Design the sequence.
């Protein structure tokens, strides 16, 4: 067990961070909003946290707090212009926001540009990552039993009907986006501290695609699904390492098979057989 | 200087237009975003490269690569979209299944050609240059522009004047009504994918020629620009995609020349973001394909 952990601890850490990212996106998806800016929120937080940690000697906790706050503020600002957009249009606008964030990260004078920002204190271990994950899952579980969760579900099923029941749909959209961004922000800071080196390319569209894949493979509307999806898709490339050149092809084929055969994601399969 | 820049913008825009028309066509007909479009774009460039390397004349290689891309599109629809369509699986599932196919195509290309940038074999095309007034053009530029314009004219006449075009527009407007009127919906969708992917493939071959470089990652560089363009033009509008692409091409080259190359992409996406927020239907609205 210890030998296994020693060999795969990086992978275990990565899985935890990816699970946080998947949870963060699943909040917006639960409200039926295809807002795809998680990678951007992650990047904003990672840069704020890392620059603070290196230049101002913040501790991991301070750095996480500042990063998450910055991501939350970015989300609150983003929520205003995209308030009227739905579906694919919302997706594209938020992807555009992500691209703008990435270009700013490349060009801003304090991020060290496309070469990447390095020497971030390497102090986010497995313990810190899984503590954050556990806290997030617990918070989402508690929220799942609140009125807020009902409002989110109602907004997803039928926005107009929800509005008719007195639910402030705009508020639901904003709060899910902002709280998702805060979670993504925590993940971003942990990512930076666990890898001690970040580049703007780490937070581009490919990352966003990955996060979306975790969510949908796991099952869109449940926390279990998001965590499962992240765990499976993080472990997969390692598991099929023996396939060498055919690894990428196999990953794509598996992704395709899961989405065609289990449209509700892995969480649904699990429930059906349990 | 300004004329040369606008000229460069038009070249870039013409190729962007080919790519974006494919996106717009699929979105207009099926209301889905095809995230494997950029992978087909890339694979067509590699097919042309491999054919040219095997000694096939350049124009023939271009045509064969474009047809291969179209066939790949039909296969893509069969594998990734048709099963979900039968089940009315919503908007998320097709996004993921097309990401799956894109990863597969990239994996295959990487296994065959490696990850590096590859030039066309020397002597594949002439490097002579023409001078028209203050505008300087290479032979490749002229070929690229010619193929792009020819394909867009062909597309618009197919959509406007042929029975296939009528079927495509009918399926775009209302799939069930089209089926009731006796249109073979699945066949129409397959042909739509053929056309869309052939256009995307053509864009890949032409960009590969224009920059004399083909790589597995070339799709990632244009994928999001294609999105920006169809938003700018109005989702699902083919005319809009062409105008949006020319605009984006010019905005890009002009912002590199006069503002800063570092912020080029931020400016393109900033324009796109503004259009989405201020005028979500884009410059041409989303009914245009249906009315074309």
Sequence:
């Amino acid at each position: 067990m210890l030998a296994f952990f020693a060999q795969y601890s990086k992978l275990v850490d990565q899985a935890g961070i990816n699970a946080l990212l998947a949870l963060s996106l699943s909040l917006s998806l639960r409200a039926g909003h295809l807002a795809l800016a998680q990678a951007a929120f992650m990047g904003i937080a990672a840069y704020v946290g890392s620059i603070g940690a290196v230049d101002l000697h913040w501790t991991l906790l301070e750095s996480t707090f500042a990063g998450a706050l910055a991501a939350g503020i970015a989300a609150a600002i983003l929520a205003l212009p995209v308030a009227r957009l739905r579906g694919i249009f919302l997706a594209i606008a938020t992807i555009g926001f992500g691209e703008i964030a990435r270009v700013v990260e490349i060009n801003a004078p304090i991020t060290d540009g496309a070469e990447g920002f390095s020497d971030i204190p390497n102090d986010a271990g497995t313990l810190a990552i899984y503590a954050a994950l556990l806290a997030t899952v617990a918070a989402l579980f508690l929220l799942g039993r609140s009125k807020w969760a009902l409002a989110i579900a109602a907004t997803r099923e039928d926005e107009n009907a929800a509005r008719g029941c007195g639910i402030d749909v705009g508020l639901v959209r904003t709060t899910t986006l902002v709280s998702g961004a805060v979670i993504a922000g925590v993940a971003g800071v942990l990512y930076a501290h666990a890898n001690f080196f970040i580049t703007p390319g780490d937070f581009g569209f490919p990352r966003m695609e990955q996060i979306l894949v975790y969510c949908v493979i796991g099952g869109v509307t449940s926390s279990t699904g998001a965590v499962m999806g992240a765990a499976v898709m993080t472990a997969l490339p390692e598991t099929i390492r023996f396939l060498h050149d055919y690894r990428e092809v196999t990953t794509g084929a598996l992704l395709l098979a899961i989405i065609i055969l289990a449209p509700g994601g892995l969480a649904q399969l699990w429930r059906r057989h349990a | 200087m300004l004329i040369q820049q606008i000229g460069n913008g038009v070249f870039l825009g013409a190729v962007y237009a080919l790519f974006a028309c494919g996106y717009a066509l699929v979105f207009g007909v099926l209301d889905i975003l095809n995230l494997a479009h950029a992978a087909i774009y890339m694979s067509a460039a590699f097919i042309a490269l491999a054919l040219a390397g095997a000694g096939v004349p350049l124009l023939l290689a271009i045509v064969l690569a474009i047809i291969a891309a179209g066939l790949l599109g039909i296969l893509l629809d069969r594998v990734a979209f048709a099963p979900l369509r039968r089940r009315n699986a919503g908007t998320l599932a097709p996004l993921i299944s097309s990401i799956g196919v894109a990863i597969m195509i990239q994996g295959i290309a990487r296994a065959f050609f490696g990850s590096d940038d590859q030039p066309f074999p020397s002597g594949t095309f002439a490097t002579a240059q023409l001078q028209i007034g203050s505008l300087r053009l290479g032979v490749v530029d002229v070929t690229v522009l010619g193929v792009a314009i020819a394909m867009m004219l062909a597309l618009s006449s197919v959509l406007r004047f042929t029975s296939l075009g009528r079927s495509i527009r009918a399926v775009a407007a209302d799939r069930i009504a089209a089926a009731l009127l006796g249109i073979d919906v699945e066949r129409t969708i397959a042909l739509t994918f053929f056309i869309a992917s052939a256009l995307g493939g053509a864009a890949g071959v032409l960009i590969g020629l224009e920059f004399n470089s083909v790589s597995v990652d070339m799709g990632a560089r244009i994928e999001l620009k294609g999105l920006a363009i169809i938003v700018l033009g109005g989702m699902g509008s083919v005319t809009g995609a062409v105008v949006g692409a020319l605009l984006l091409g010019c905005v890009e080259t002009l912002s590199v020349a006069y503002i800063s190359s570092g912020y080029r992409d931020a400016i393109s996406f900033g324009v796109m973001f503004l259009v989405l927020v201020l005028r979500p239907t884009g410059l041409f609205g989303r009914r245009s394909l249906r009315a074309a």
Observations:
- The longest helix of chain B spans residues 2-30.
- Chain B touches chain A through 47 residues (CB under 8 Å).
